């Protein structure tokens, strides 16, 4: 019983995965960018000293994951092991590239990705038990993408095929990165401008509320690709019959239908969360505001909306992460974004080109989730301090 009490239940999953990853192919080397290539285990990818270092790091992390060690120590160890694995992937690519041709493509294999999964699973489990200051979490969320940029700039991954694809597509990559941010962020901004007032309207117009919410719910039931396609015909008509619309760049394919579709998908979570936040304001607080002589508008702006802010931010978090993912599909209708690389890679059977679009999308989603969670906690803490004073 004592022994089982010392075992972390999530570690029972993460530790065996980490150990199993050491015996799976660590790298894959192919003659060019489109052939499958050959898997290489750790002992064939790294020198004996490098392999021993990786085995020790993973073994220590697996033991920490399995036992009930302090969560902070566990999180640091899992993060350090993930960083070590990433660095050793670059070293393995250098080792394999020494005997390969200039057209060879070297990419991480299943063992590497499974090891990263075990590290992030352990880290997430540990972070769930750590009450970090939200400002610290905000700083960590901001620093994560900068750490990746630093690793790329260091050149340690220069022989990985993903970085070779990036070198060939660098100008297009940053252009599509800006477009992806514009689509996801722009649609979120427009949804906030329309959705928050609509949520306020639903709070006070109880008769119109079912119609509004049912309409927005119906939009959510339409598959994303179908909605993108449905917008092509009406926007093409606008571009053909209204010259001013065409001059603004509104047309059947491209940015306009992608932005409009993402905006439509964004409305329901923001409206619902705004409505929920307003309805959860305590009745005693409203009575106190009226007792102070506040008008309805003053009560809304000074009391109800500030108290509903955490719920509104939670809706914005949902929409931001949703739109970062959905913006990838916009490439199918000429909307651009990281989906350009995903679909180009699929059409060319080039996995590294697919990853050039997938990995930045995941990093953006993860960073957005961490930042928004921190902002929500900051707003809640601010409200608790306000109520206590």
UniProtKB/TrEMBL annotation:
Top-level lineage group: Bacteria
InterPro entries, A to Z: ABC_transp_perm/SBD (IPR051204), MetI-like (IPR000515), MetI-like_sf (IPR035906)
PANTHER family: GLYCINE BETAINE UPTAKE SYSTEM PERMEASE PROTEIN YEHY, GLYCINE BETAINE/L-PROLINE TRANSPORT SYSTEM PERMEASE PROTEIN PROW
Family statement drawn from the similarity comment of this UniProt entry: Belongs to the binding-protein-dependent transport system permease family.
SUPFAM superfamilies given in the database record: MetI-like (SSF161098)
Location, primary (coarse class): membrane
Compartment(s) where it occurs, according to its Swiss-Prot or TrEMBL record: Cell membrane
Record-given protein name: ABC transporter permease
Keyword Thylakoid attached: no
UniProt keywords, alphabetically: Membrane, Transmembrane, Transmembrane helix, Transport
TM regions (residue ranges): 12-31, 51-69, 76-98, 110-128, 135-157, 177-201, 213-238, 258-278, 307-333, 353-376
Membrane-related topology note: Multi-pass membrane protein
Domain ABC transmembrane type-1: 177-372
CDD domains xref list: TM_PBP2
């Amino acid at each position: 019983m004592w022994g089982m009490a010392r075992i972390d239940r999530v570690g029972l999953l993460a530790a065996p995965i980490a150990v199993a990853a050491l015996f799976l192919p660590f790298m894959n080397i192919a003659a060019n960018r489109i052939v499958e290539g050959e898997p290489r285990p750790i002992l064939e990818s790294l020198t004996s000293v490098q392999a021993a270092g990786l085995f020790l790091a993973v073994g220590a992390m697996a033991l920490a994951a399995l036992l009930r060690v302090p969560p902070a120590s566990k999180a640091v160890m899992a993060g350090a092991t993930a960083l070590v694995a990433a660095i050793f992937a670059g070293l393995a690519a250098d080792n394999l590239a020494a005997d390969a041709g200039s057209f060879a493509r070297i990419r991480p294999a299943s063992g590497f990705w499974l090891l990263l999964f075990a590290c992030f699973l352990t880290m997430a489990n540990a972070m769930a038990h750590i009450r970090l200051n939200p400002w610290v979490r905000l700083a960590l969320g901001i620093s994560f993408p900068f750490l990746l940029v630093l690793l790329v700039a260091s050149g340690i991954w220069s022989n990985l095929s993903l970085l070779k694809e990036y070198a060939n597509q660098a100008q297009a990559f940053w252009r599509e990165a800006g477009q992806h941010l514009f689509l996801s962020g722009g649609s979120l901004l427009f949804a906030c401008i329309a959705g928050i007032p609509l949520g306020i309207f639903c709070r006070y117009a109880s008769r119109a509320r079912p119609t509004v919410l049912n309409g927005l719910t119906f939009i959510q039931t339409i598959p994303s690709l179908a909605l993108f396609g449905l917008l092509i015909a009406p926007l093409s008509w606008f571009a053909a019959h209204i010259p001013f619309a065409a001059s603004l760049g509104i047309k059947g394919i491209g940015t306009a239908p992608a932005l409009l579709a993402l905006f439509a998908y964004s409305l329901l979570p923001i409206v619902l969360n705004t409505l929920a936040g307003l309805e959860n304001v305590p009745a005693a607080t409203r009575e106190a505001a009226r007792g102070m002589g506040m008008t309805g508008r003053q009560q809304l702006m000074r009391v109800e909306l500030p108290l509903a802010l955490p719920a509104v931010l939670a809706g914005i978090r949902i929409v931001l992460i949703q739109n970062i993912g959905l913006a990838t599909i916009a490439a199918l209708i000429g909307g651009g974004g990281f989906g350009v690389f995903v679909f180009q890679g699929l059409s060319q059977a080039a996995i590294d080109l697919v990853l050039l679009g997938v990995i930045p999308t995941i990093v953006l989603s993860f960073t957005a989730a961490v930042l928004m969670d921190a902002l929500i906690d900051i707003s809640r803490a601010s409200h608790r301090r306000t109520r206590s004073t």
